[in-house]
């Protein structure tokens, strides 16, 4: 049985990290050297889902759409947190503690949703 020292265990991680960096540099360099480069006017146009660009490239988006995206992220994080909680809840010794923690977590989410509702963010049509 071999004994590894503290630093020798990290040296393996360092070597793998350097090998990963060298591989990426090699792949990007090989791509740059081996790929053909023949720019044309059509190739340099902005590509947007197969539709030719028309007009200016700057468009304003209402902040409400970002709020919807933010609310989606909150619910996604909530669901990611609920699944592991549901699996550990049945384990012995975790019932009371995990139930209290989940009520606190859901309480924070409820306060955030109530705040968004009071601010009128959750209404789709303008009043």
UniProtKB/TrEMBL annotation:
Topological relation to the membrane, as annotated: Multi-pass membrane protein
Enzyme class: translocase
Presence of keyword NAD: yes
InterPro entries: NADH_UbQ/plastoQ_OxRdtase_su3, NDAH_ubi_oxred_su3_sf
EC identifiers of the protein: 7.1.1.-
GO MF entries: NADH dehydrogenase (ubiquinone) activity; oxidoreductase activity; quinone binding
Catalytic activity: a quinone + NADH + 5 H(+)(in) = a quinol + NAD(+) + 4 H(+)(out)
Predominant place of localization: membrane
GO CC terms, sorted: NADH dehydrogenase complex; plasma membrane
UniProtKB keywords: Membrane, NAD, Oxidoreductase, Quinone, Transmembrane, Transmembrane helix, Transport
Keyword Transport: yes
Transmembrane segments: 6-28, 65-86, 98-117
Subcellular location: Cell membrane; Membrane
PANTHER family on file: NADH-UBIQUINONE OXIDOREDUCTASE CHAIN 3
Function: NDH-1 shuttles electrons from NADH, via FMN and iron-sulfur (Fe-S) centers, to quinones in the respiratory chain.
Protein name, as recorded: NADH-quinone oxidoreductase subunit
Organism of provenance: Actinospica acidithermotolerans
Gene behind the chain: ndhC
């Amino acid at each position: 049985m071999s004994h590894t020292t503290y630093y020798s265990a990290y040296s393996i991680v360092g070597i793998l990290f350097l090998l990963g960096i060298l591989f990426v540099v090699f792949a990007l360099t090989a791509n740059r050297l081996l790929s053909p480069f023949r720019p044309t006017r059509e190739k340099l146009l902005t590509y947007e889902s197969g539709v030719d660009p028309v007009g200016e490239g700057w468009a304003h988006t209402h902040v409400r759409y970002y709020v919807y995206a933010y609310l989606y992220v909150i619910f996604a994080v909530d669901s990611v947190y609920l699944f592991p909680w549901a699996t550990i809840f049945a384990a012995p010794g975790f019932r009371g503690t995990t139930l209290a923690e989940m009520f606190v977590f859901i309480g924070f989410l409820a306060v955030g949703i109530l705040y968004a509702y009071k601010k009128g963010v959750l209404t789709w049509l303008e009043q």
